[in-house]
Amino acid sequence: MAQTAQPAQTVATQKAKKEVSKAKADAKKEAAAAKAAAKKETVAAKKAADKAAASGAKLKKDGTPDKRYTNAKEVAAETSKKTASKAAAKKEEAVKEVKASTPGLKKDGTPDKRYTASKEKAEAAVKETKTRATQVKKEATSTVTPKDYKPTVDRSLQGPNGEQILTGPRGGKYYINKNGNKTYVKREG
């Protein structure tokens, strides 16, 4: 009977050995696949590190770029480019509007004197602004001090040495001192 029991054990051991060898082969395949995946990851990390090193970014110990450090110069350059392009677009729109409203202007906005119509318009505009400027000047000087203004003398008051007390255009009281300068009298009250 011992002989019949041995073949059963040998068949079972042979099956077990086959399963073990299959498991070993599967484990080897999985290990090889994992090794290949790890190699791909390291190659990708090295490429990223080389790229980051070339751009001047800070790297972690493992060679990957540290995302805590952003390149402020790049960010500032991008924002300045965006704002500059927006400003240029606004300027171009404004120039187009001005050109459309007034033909015969140069790029800088000054009138082109080759066109007689623009020449006449420009001269009329210049005359108008000059007259307006003179009117404004006249109004400004008339509100401050009229040309025919004469200071009033306050006979009830006298300066420290008996000088006449005068009243200025805005109501201030002063006298002329021995040096010929105005000396204002402090208000009482």
Query: Number of helical segments?
Result: 3
- Head-to-tail CA distance between termini: 140 Å
From the spread of the alpha carbons, the general shape counts as elongated
Structural class: alpha+beta
The order of strands across the largest sheet is 1-2-3-4
Show unreliable segments: none
How much of the sequence is in beta strands? Answer: 5-15%
Name the helix and strand elements from N-terminus to C-terminus, one letter apiece: HHHEEEE
Give the mean pLDDT.
Answer: 75
Main sheet record: 4 strands, antiparallel
Number of domains: 4
State the helicity in percent bands: 55-70%
Number of strands: 4
Whole-number radius of gyration? 49 Å
Provide a descriptive summary of the structure in words:
This is Colicin import membrane protein. It comes from Pedobacter steynii. The structure is a single chain. The protein is of the alpha+beta class and 189 residues long. The chain has four domains: 69 residues, no CATH class; 31 residues; 32 residues; 33 residues, no CATH class. Helix content is 60%, strand content 10%. It has three helices and four strands. The chain has a four-stranded antiparallel β-sheet, with no helix packed on it. Strand 1 and strand 2 form a beta hairpin. The termini are far apart. 1% of the residues are buried. The mean pLDDT is 75.
